[in-house]
């Protein structure tokens, strides 16, 4: 395992021709979800300083609180604190866990989400009808609905230019359906241009029924590809697919399994949840994208440590 000093030296040693150095790590915190108490189904959102490894519980509430998105100094999270068990509403807070505000009373599905221009969110509302997504403003006002012609749709993300979404789509309503075939899709924000991007190898039979063939998509901020996790050859790894679907490749090859992840706004850093094959311990790892050096940042205080997102420190640029 790298020490912080060794890791930072590695980060400065990327060879000529690789991506620019980007912003220093001291601009960011990493927010992520932890299981605090399994007996009460209590999940909290923590922040982690990637340099000092200082952790802070910023929700500290006996609810299910999960973050799947941050934008600047704001962290968006879903919570069942004001509703029935695992009935989620959308909230926001700052990087210190202060200024908590409910954005929408409408119930959401457990899904990743996206942000456009710092003013609009794409979410997955829990409502009857065909599966799809809703674009809302920061006060919960509905701006548009997007209904891809698929039996299953989840985990939307805005493209960097905001003109289309990438999402996880399926050919049946549930993974329990033998006809379920999961992939990364794209669709324009007006609902047109549905296109399948990723292809799961038909010869690979190693994935259990519940595993991701194509996990929640994340756009690289400066390179023209979408990253996602996929269970292939008996292990979860991260893969990339070109935004036009013309190419698909393996992104990383860590010893541990790789899952939910996020790119720093400059594209320099990749935060990944990593775990053992039996999924007995989840950690948050940080990778320097140019040279692929990586380090596990978390300890074993919590068993489940998942869904990292980058949030700017208060007062950061």
Low-confidence stretches: 1-20
Rg from alpha-carbon coordinates: 19 Å
> Distance N terminus to C terminus?
30 Å
Oligomeric category: single chain
Strands of the widest sheet, in order across it, are 3-2-1-24
Summarize the main sheet: 4 strands, antiparallel
Q: Give the structural class.
A: mainly beta
Q: What would you call the shape?
A: globular
Please work out how many helical segments DSSP would assign: 1
* Beta-strand proportion: 35-45%
Helix content: under 10%
Sequence of secondary-structure elements: HEEEEEEEEEEEEEEEEEEEEEEEE
- List how many beta strands DSSP finds: 24
Mean pLDDT: 92
List the SSEs and their pairings.
Layout: H1 4-11, E1 28-37, E2 42-48, E3 55-57, E4 65-71, E5 74-79, E6 88-94, E7 101-108, E8 114-116, E9 120-123, E10 133-137, E11 142-146, E12 152-158, E13 164-170, E14 182-188, E15 195-196, E16 218-219, E17 225-232, E18 235-242, E19 248-250, E20 257-263, E21 269-275, E22 282-288, E23 294-296, E24 305-312
Antiparallel strand pairs: 1-2, 1-24, 2-3, 4-5, 5-6, 6-7, 8-9, 9-10, 10-11, 12-13, 13-14, 14-15, 16-17, 17-18, 18-19, 20-21, 21-22, 22-23
Question: Brief description of this entry?
Answer:
The chain is an all-beta fold.
């Amino acid at each position: 395992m790298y020490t912080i000093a060794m890791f930072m030296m590695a980060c400065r040693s990327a060879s000529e021709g690789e991506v620019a150095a980007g912003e220093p790590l001291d601009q960011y915190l990493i927010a992520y979800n932890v299981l605090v108490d399994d007996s009460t189904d209590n999940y909290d959102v923590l922040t982690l300083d990637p340099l000092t490894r200082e952790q802070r519980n910023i929700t500290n509430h006996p609810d299910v609180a999960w973050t799947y998105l941050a934008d600047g100094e704001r962290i968006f999270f879903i919570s069942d604190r004001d509703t029935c068990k695992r009935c989620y509403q959308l909230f926001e807070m700052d990087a210190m866990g202060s200024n908590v505000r409910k954005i929408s009373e409408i119930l959401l599905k457990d899904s990743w989400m996206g942000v456009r221009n710092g003013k609009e969110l794409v979410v997955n509302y829990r409502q009857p009808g065909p599966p799809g997504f809703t674009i809302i403003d920061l006060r919960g006002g509905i701006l548009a609905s997007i209904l891809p012609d698929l039996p299953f749709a989840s985990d939307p993300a805005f493209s960097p230019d905001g003109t289309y979404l990438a999402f996880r789509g399926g050919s049946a309503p549930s993974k329990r359906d033998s006809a379920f075939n999961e992939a990364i899709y794209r669709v324009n924000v007006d609902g047109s241009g549905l296109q399948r991007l990723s292809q799961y190898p038909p010869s690979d039979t190693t994935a259990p029924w519940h595993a991701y063939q194509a996990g929640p998509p994340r756009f690289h901020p400066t390179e023209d590809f979408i990253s996602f996790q996929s269970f292939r050859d008996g292990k979860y790894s991260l893969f990339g697919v070109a935004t036009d679907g013309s190419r698909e490749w393996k992104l990383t090859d860590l010893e541990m399994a790789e899952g939910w992840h996020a790119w720093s706004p400059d594209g320099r850093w990749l935060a990944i949840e990593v775990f053992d094959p039996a999924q007995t311990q989840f950690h948050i790892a940080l990778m320097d994208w140019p040279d692929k050096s990586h380090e596990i940042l978390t300890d074993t205080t919590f068993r489940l440590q998942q869904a990292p997102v980058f949030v700017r420190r208060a007062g950061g640029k």
